Write the structure tokens for this entry.
Amino acid sequence: MPSLNFVLPHWLYWGTLIVFPLLAMYFVKRQKQRGTPQGPSLFIAYVFCLCAGFMGLHRLYLRNMWGLIFIPVFLAILYTNDEMRDRREDVSRTRAAVERSHTAIRRAEIPPNVSATPRMTERLKRAQSEGSAAEQQFAQAQADLDRWRGYSRWLAILMAAMLLTDAVLLPGTVRRASESEAAERRLHPPAAEAPPHLDQQGTGEDPTLAVHTRLTDKIELLNIRVGEFAAYWAVISVFVYYYEVIARFVFNSPTNWVHESMFLMYGMQYMLAGAYAYREDQHVRVDVIYTKFSPRGKAAADIVTSVFFFIFIGVLFWTSWRFAADAINNNEHSFTEWGVQYWSVKLMMPIGAGLLFLQGISKLIKDVAFLARGRA
């Protein structure tokens, strides 16, 4: 298989983190307006073809058993890649043996003005014989590597031809699968089922979850949108780590940027989604007294303890802003070969702290309103 030398450009990394969530939010909203989709989707079929077409998953998604024909070709590619790794090791080992034999021959050569003794002659012949054998082994190892490279190249061409052919045939295949499923639904209408009950996640202890005011609703809408935006980054990691696995095990081309790009992304997601988690009462709460309080008692306790929350947020914002400002002033980059900018990553820390501060204000207003009203 050919090697992959792709390195993710910095502009593409940051652009994807901005554009992908916006597109995902738009398509999800549009799908909700259209209702539950019926039948296979051409878009999903092309996603399967692009990401896992070598396993025939786009065909299997459409319930087309021709997808199974991709599996033996893919397994053959994996086998040839494993053989190529062994052959490369053989080439490296025999090349080293040839270099050692050349060194031994140079040391065994008889100087021009020195009479050769039988021992010196025998030593030279033995070194030349071992050198000839090492060169033959090296030539054989190189020939074996070239042969397996040829197998891998033809298998790659075959797989590419199969995928390109399916890319052209996919719209018609999806149309026929949709017609078949529509006919099956007409013959056997699905029974109406109530949606499954899902328990509320999180602590479920906040008594003000159902409290609404004009100001708090605006603050929480902002944090909901930011949380939804950052949540779609997790989808990006699926594709990125998928690329790393394929590049490493199929193309023998491990990357130096996948792991760094993803742990930086998840660090930013952690900061930006904190306010949304606070709004949804999803943060871990460890207590032995709070759960025994009445709803009004919990609201009063939250008001009292909010002092510590705002102290923490203030310290977090101040220290993280200085941290980010230093990175911005120095145009800080990572120390790896990828060299991505760090200042934009560290800037998410004060932004996340600011969002948490706003959500804390919203929570405090709701607690006061809950006590004033006596109910949600």
User: Anything to note?
Assistant: Residues 3 and 252 are 6 Å apart (CA to CA). The radius of gyration is 32 Å.
